[in-house]
Amino acid sequence: MEQEGIGRLELRIGNTREYLGAGRHLLILGRNPASDITIDGECVSRSHARLEYRGGRYYLRDESQNGTYIYWYEKGIQSHINHEEIELTSGRGKITLGQDLNKTDTKDVIEFYFLSGSSKEMNDNLSQENLAENKAENKIDYSQEETEIFTKAKPVVKKTLDLHLAYNFLEEYNDRIMVLITNDGFIKYYNYHLERLTRRKYVDFIGQDFFSFIHPEDRQNLLDLITQIGLGIGDKLQIKVRLCTANPRWQAYTFEVSAITPSLQALGLEGIVLLSLLEQSTYLQGGLLSGRYRVVRSLSNSNFCQTYLGEDTQRPDNPRCIIKKLNLSHSDIKVMEVARRLFYQEALSLEILGRHDRIPLLLAYLEDNEYFYIIQDFIEGQSLDQLLTYSWNCLEVVNLMRQVLLILHYVHSQNVIHRDVKPANIIRRSFDDNYVLIDFGSVKLLPSTIWNKVGDTKSRPLTVVVGTPGYMSPEQSLGKPTKSSDIYSLGIIAIEALLGKSYQSVRYGWVSELEQRNIDKDLIRILEKMVTIEPSKRYQEASEVLIELNYLSLMNVDLEKEFE
Length: 564
What we know:
The N terminus is likely disordered. It is elongated, with a radius of gyration of 33 Å. It starts with 7 loop residues before the first strand and ends with a helix. It has four domains: 143 residues, Tumour Suppressor Smad4 (Sandwich); 114 residues, PAS domain (Beta-Lactamase, 2-Layer Sandwich); 94 residues, Phosphorylase Kinase, domain 1, CATH 3.30.200.20; 183 residues, Transferase(Phosphotransferase) domain 1 (Transferase(Phosphotransferase), domain 1, Orthogonal Bundle). The protein contains 17 helices and 26 strands. It is an alpha+beta fold. Helix 8 packs across helix 11, helix 10 runs antiparallel to helix 13 and helix 10 runs antiparallel to helix 16.
């Protein structure tokens, strides 16, 4: 229901009238030809302001560079808003975009009135002096206007796009391009997928000629197709055209072109809908990523990263590989440039780390439609969480610690922190029973790193915690991991292996339980220092732990050879 005492809101500029109320919830003001009220002024932004009807109230929201001015007749004052929202209450006034009332051409002044629905009530709101002024300025015959507006139960309202309703429908097609254009080819609305492919923003599309984004050689064919649909000769016709994208510059898409979809027709919309058919990735040729890697099955899925088991079809026997698909897509070109640079740095880091025999080899890194792919060697074997089903003896645990510490020594020497040392990320390799460390957590930090590079410098840096609860050190759970955080995680794993149970279940009694089992006291002392809460009292380097392990009577290892 509308707010009591306030009826519809009418806006007038020249001979144009627009209404806002229960039957229409949104009006766009700006320089854009697709706006409901278009003002072509040098101080006016393309999408300058919007009027919204919400909960029986009327709001004016500015979205421009120069702001919006409101003059209130009853108060005799002028307000200015810039990226703000103000409620319009009963009465009448004037709105100007980009400049105050004194500097704005009279033809660009928008007048607003609150109407309750009858001629008498409207005339009560307007004095005879103001009516005469408006007749002189706008040359409107108000006697005829009253009959036109108020003798009809339902005034004719121009069919325009309600962005809130259309958004819910159009954004369902997040895997393909969807564009709504007028019969003469101007863009009325589009979904985010078009922004992602072209790396352009809202203002670059709305109100623009869609044909300007089509390859010159394809424009006439598309125009002929749209003409056929307009004449009713056909509907849901398909055409292949080249669209101007970011990289490569021209990319071919097959569109289904139709007069209107039932869902949009229900919104009272008219025009032409172009919906691209499900696109084939430029890298997915014949079902292969980059014409080489075949996805076998999904292993894990998150908002940012999907991990798949794949096959390398260009190596003998099609060996398995790990495919990580990272979603770093963003409509802002600056964000994508930072994402691309950080992704390259991450791939370079994985390339260097993969030179170690106990870390998966980086096979390839790819970018396709703003998705980034990392291809790594698949390690055949069993993960540690599959093996920790019983209590290990001291020799087995120390051997595990020694091998993983040697890997961490190399990782830390490259100024990298693993961040997610846990049983599932330690694989006992099948062909030699050696342990391999996989799934470096630094990849998961890319979204927050990108944000901190390009976000608002006045806002606090975004802190994202990467790791697994139960194995993270206290400082890592606060988003401040160090090299000793990896050592802490390995210490937890070693304690669990010795006890055959979760560390959390014996958090405050594990030392006494190990002593009861006659575990080597020096090993217990080393583990205590590895998992101490205070980072400064913990081992700072993996080599420190290795040296102390070497002095145990259990081991007889030449550390100089191990470090080579």
